[in-house]
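Structure in, sequence out. Go:
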């Protein structure tokens, strides 16, 4: 195992403690719940609060997006495991200001069940909580409602947080978040597995020189395993899938994210961005403020995903709204 940890059973607690120490100007752990990260920069005026979350191992998701005018709190589970209903509920209690809360998280069965239970606990306290599940992974299912949430989370989180920061009510924030999700599409490839810190073993075996097309961030299998191709071929394949599924066409504008899965060099990510940029331009599609880097990872997995969100003036304004979180900043 090529990981620098102590005891595999302590990685989440030690990671969260270290994160809060490193970013103490931004966040803190909830006093009576060490799996809830709370923003220290929550607005004083009452407004809808945005709560994100999911399993550990995908850093900087989800904790890296808690900050000023982004997420107000994050509920954190074990590695590749949803946070408990109690953690979701504790996040609501920590940040609600009387305008209700919106849960935004990837569409996984455990997350759906536990966040829903957390919302039920909050309802018993008279706190209204709504949810939007992110469903951007185009090859996880032909049925859109069953798709997984992957790096497109970032776009959907950003729209939700910006709508809340503008003072919109909970129904408006939810509607805009759903609009962002409906226009977001992702697909990725893995060149290796990730290593589980408790066992020291990989989730699945891959031969050197292979790649899994459509791999999920928890090690879910993709659509096919092939021999590794050159970057331009891989990116061309992914962009072709994305444009076909999304029906994005000439004249449209998108925001583009090249996302590293944790173990791919930034050099390689920019090589992939270069080709994606070229292909979208050749198709008459304009790019608004591209993003390149590790946004939603799978620990030490080598690979990338490409996410695109089709934008209009409304979504562009929300995506451009200033925010300040440790791993996502737009200047005020």
């Amino acid at each position: 195992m090529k990981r620098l940890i102590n005891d595999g059973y302590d990685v989440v607690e030690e990671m969260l403690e270290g994160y809060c120490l490193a970013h103490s100007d931004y966040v803190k752990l909830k006093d009576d719940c060490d799996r809830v990260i709370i923003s220290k920069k929550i607005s004083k005026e009452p407004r809808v609060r945005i709560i994100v979350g999911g399993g550990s191992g995908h850093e900087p998701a989800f904790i890296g997006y808690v900050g000023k005018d982004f997420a107000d709190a994050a509920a954190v589970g074990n590695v590749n495991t949803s946070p408990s209903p109690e953690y979701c509920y504790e996040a609501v209690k920590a940040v609600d200001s009387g305008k209700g809360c919106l849960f935004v998280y990837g569409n996984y069965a455990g997350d759906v069940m536990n966040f829903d239970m957390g919302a039920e606990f909050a309802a018993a306290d008279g706190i209204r909580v709504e949810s939007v599940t992110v469903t951007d992974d185009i090859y996880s299912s032909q049925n859109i409602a069953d798709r997984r949430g992957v790096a497109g989370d970032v776009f959907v989180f950003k729209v939700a947080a910006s709508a809340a920061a503008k003072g919109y009510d909970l129904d408006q924030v939810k509607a805009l978040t759903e609009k962002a999700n409906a226009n977001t599409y992702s697909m990725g490839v893995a060149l290796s597995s990730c290593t589980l810190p408790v066992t020291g073993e990989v989730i699945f075996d891959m031969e050197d020189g292979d790649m899994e097309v459509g791999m999920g961030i928890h090690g879910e299998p993709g659509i096919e395993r092939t021999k590794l191709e050159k970057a331009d071929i891989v990116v061309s394949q992914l962009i072709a899938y994305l444009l076909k599924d999304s029906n994005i066409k000439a004249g449209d504008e998108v925001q583009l994210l090249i996302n590293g899965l944790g173990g791919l060099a930034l050099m390689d990510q920019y090589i992939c961005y270069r080709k994606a940029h070229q292909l979208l331009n050749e198709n008459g599609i304009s790019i608004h403020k591209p993003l390149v880097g590790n946004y939603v990872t799978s620990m030490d997995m080598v690979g990338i995903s490409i996410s695109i969100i089709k934008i209009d003036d409304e979504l562009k304004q929300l995506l451009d709204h200033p925010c300040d979180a440790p791993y996502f900043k737009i200047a005020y």
